[in-house]
Amino acid sequence: MTRILIAEDEERIVSFLEKGLRAAGYTTLAVSDGIDALSLARDDSFDLLILDLGLPGIAGQEVLQRMRSRGEQMPVIILTARAGVDDAVRGFEGGADDYVVKPFRFEELLARVRVRLRGAPAAESAVLRAGDVTLDLRTRRAAVGERMVELTAREFALLENLLRHAGQVLSREQLLSHVWGYDFDPGSNVVDVYIRYLRKKLGADVVETVRGMGYRLRTDR
Ligand code: CA
Q1: For the chain, which end, N or C, has fewer CB atoms within 10 Å of the first or last residue's CB respectively?
Q2: Ligand 1 centroid to 97 CA: how many Å?
């Protein structure tokens, strides 16, 4: 079981992170200040720390410095507001492994988490597949059977999300938060618009509409 410690004081970001990381199969624990973060951040209890720089108690930067000075090697991904990017870059000198600028898409954070947890060569296949739809994460190419399909970055992210949950129903809200990020207006119809784009490119029956619930990528084509 891979355990991730989240040190973040903004509740909606914590719930956004916990939902997404748990859905991706990780165990999470969240703390909202730097004092708790520092006391829990021990190599033997967590595999990775997601650390907000602007934490009450002890600031993220100092949490990181104290961890590294007591010899802890746990990977750390910093979360920072755009105005704090300079601090985040300084975070690398303080021993951070990566940083993500708020607001961020969940997939962006998840990709970094996966990279940091992957000490050994990737166990995960680079090609996602369901029915005759394939998506190569390395070359960033999609195909239906033998036919190659050009996707925009957002279409790619949406298809990746659907493929990772092929056969399951994903609600608009889930897709919105996974692909567009937590700052997106929940009343937006952008998910429906992009599902239409995907259907146009991949075939109308690739994504099913489950009335009142959301969308499902078919696995039986
Ligand atoms: Ca904060």
Answers
A1: N
A2: 19
